[in-house]
Amino acid sequence: MNEMTDTEIELKLRDYFESNFQYLKESSGHSIDGYMKEKAFQQVLYYWKKNRKLIERITRSEVKLSLPERVTPNQKIPYTIEGIVDIVQEKDGIWLYDLKTHDIDRIKANIEQYKEQLYIYSYIWKKLQRNELDNTAVISTPLPDRLEMAIRKRNPELIQREVESWQPIIPIGYEEEEVEEMINNFGEVVEKIESSEFAPPDVDVLLNKPNGMKSVFAVQVCRNCDVRFSCDSYKKYLAVSKGANHSNMRKYMKLPAEEQDEFITGNMEE
After folding, report:
1. pLDDT interval class at 262 (50, 70, 90)
2. With bands split at pLDDT 50, 70 and 90, how would you rate the model's confidence at 248?
3. CB–CB of 120/179 below 8 Å?
4. Burial 219-241 (b: 16+ CB within 10 A, else e)
5. Rounded to the nearest 5°, which phi and psi values hold at 76?
6. The predicted structure's pLDDT at residue 2
């Protein structure tokens, strides 16, 4: 069987993307404008172009890992940890990869959070399932700003240069001694969830830019939360944010300026 050309692969990716988009649209009842839809596809396409060799080396894709029959440290609430990873046979050993939709700077600035998750997955893969493992890594899927700009300019040479300089893989490693403490930390979070302890951060946190993030907490984190308009901290943020009261339209929508940028750009494209 002949190998597919790059053009054929791109067309096939677009078919898969469209099928998934329609499924998510119908199952969730939500949609996005044409601009954001194309932006999402470009992320898929250039992720493939950049990581094609790695993807072709994947030994096992979307492996489901499970750590059952755990109990929280204080209230003894039973819970199970589950995750999905990719396993790749590299030249220097077997690697466990986890994909994240967070940008590279955010991951590097908060590496301990990602390490905790990867270590637990590694423990399940290596100790419970008795498989070999040499290293772990996070793959950051968002496109860098400079690459997005090159794509918008439709400059092939600039695009190629930015793709080559893009380094989406962040090695994490694996230290078995730290895993048990990490699992206990996870159990403490489960206890808070089961006890309905969902206290949001103070409005001062929402107004500041955390390490590695491009925007303030309210824009980078809160806008992905479905219950933000019922959150007291977010309401306070809207009240004091300059963008929230910049015009009568924003006042009516009760959205900060940053949250409207993609909406406005998308509708202009339409």
Report:
1. low
2. very low
3. yes
4. bbbbeeeeebeebebbebbbeeb
5. 55, 45
6. 62
Task: Specify the pLDDT at position 41.
Answer: 96
- Single-letter amino acid code for the residue at 94: I
Amino acid at 108: K
Task: Tell me the one-letter amino acid at 121.
Answer: Y
In terms of residues, how long is the chain? 270
> CB neighbours of 105 closer than 8 A, spacing ≥ 6?
212, 213, 214
- Residue 240 makes CB contacts below 8 A (sequence gap 6+) with 203, 207
Phi/psi region, residue 54 (left: phi>0; alpha: psi -120 to 50; beta: rest), is alpha
The Cα 169–Cα 118 span in angstroms is 14
In terms of DSSP bridges, do strands 93-100 and 58-71 run parallel, antiparallel, or are they unpaired?
A: unpaired
Nearest to 148 by CA among 39, 254, 57, 16: 39
